[in-house]
Write a structure and sequence with these properties.
It contains ten helices and four strands. It is α+β, with helices and mostly antiparallel strands. The chain folds into two domains: about 160 residues, Hypothetical protein af1432 (Orthogonal Bundle), CATH 1.10.3210; about 70 residues, no CATH class. Strands 1-2-3-4 form a four-stranded mixed beta sheet. Helix 6 runs antiparallel to helix 7. The longest helix has 20 residues.
């Protein structure tokens, strides 16, 4: 997947994206994350494809919020630029799951310390030292707080967490599926056809989920709903679901 194909990444410093996309250590950690998460635990993809989907969706949401007049936290609190916040979001989203290479348990913590050296090395090539360290702490916060149970305290961290939950179309569930079972998890995971992120009217971010059947509601509530709940940006996000076979009317999901 080339840089130009990731529509919402436009505006990101291209050199930074190319560095992480080609970085041997990052690619190896993402590959090993899938060895652990997919091969040993039965989860679906937590590797490079997931990293790019989450980065794309997180940046799309950050841009929507900014367009709606909601300043990213680094701009508000640290007098940073919007490009700085884009960099935080990109690196936080791209590296949030590398800790799965060590273990799924507390993988958000593993991801944080694995990312530290990588992030500092990359940022020091593009920013002055103090700015690089400031950005590093914000990126690590986004990585650490993407898991349920840890409240995101920045807008950038919030969009990373929610974006993580949006990667749930069939075959890409964030919940481990028993391949030999026919239960609510497996049926629900197979029911999510498409997830779209748009500008909303009542709330800035409008997420539409297309389902093949009603069982997909479980996936929305258990995966995306939990991410939104702990993201810190719950008040900015609305979720609507539509069952494909029915009339094209969306039903709002209460998170």
């Amino acid at each position: 997947m080339e840089f130009e194909e990731l529509e919402s990444l436009r505006g990101i410093p291209k050199k930074i994206y190319e560095e992480i996309d080609e970085n041997k250590k990052i690619n190896t950690l993402l590959k090993m994350s899938n060895v652990m998460a997919v091969g040993r635990l039965g989860y679906n993809d937590h590797g490079k494809t997931h990293a790019k989907i989450v980065a794309n969706n997180a940046i799309k949401m950050l841009k929507i919020l900014y367009k709606k007049g909601i300043l990213p936290s680094f701009m508000r609190d640290c007098k940073g630029t919007f490009d700085d916040s884009l960099t935080i979001t990109l690196l936080g989203a791209y590296l949030h799951d590398i800790g799965n290479s060590i273990h799924r348990d507390i993988h958000h913590l593993h991801s944080s310390y694995l990312a530290l050296g990588i992030v500092e090395e990359i940022l020091k090539r593009h920013y002055k030292e103090e700015k690089a360290y400031q950005l590093t702490t914000e990126i690590l916060h986004a990585i650490y707080s993407h898991s349920e149970g840890i409240m995101g305290l920045t807008i950038e961290a919030g969009v990373v967490a929610v974006a993580d939950g949006t990667d749930m179309t069939k075959g890409r569930s964030r919940v481990p599926i028993c391949k030999k079972c026919y239960d609510i998890h497996s049926v629900s995971a197979a029911s999510v056809e498409k997830v779209e992120i748009k500008e909303g009217d009542e709330k800035p971010i409008h997420i539409e989920v297309i389902l093949s059947n009603e069982a997909g509601i479980f996936q929305i509530q258990e995966v995306l709903g939990e991410k939104i709940k702990w993201s810190g940006i719950k008040n900015y996000v609305s979720v609507y679901a539509k069952v494909k076979k029915e009339k094209p009317v969306f039903e709002e999901i209460t998170i």
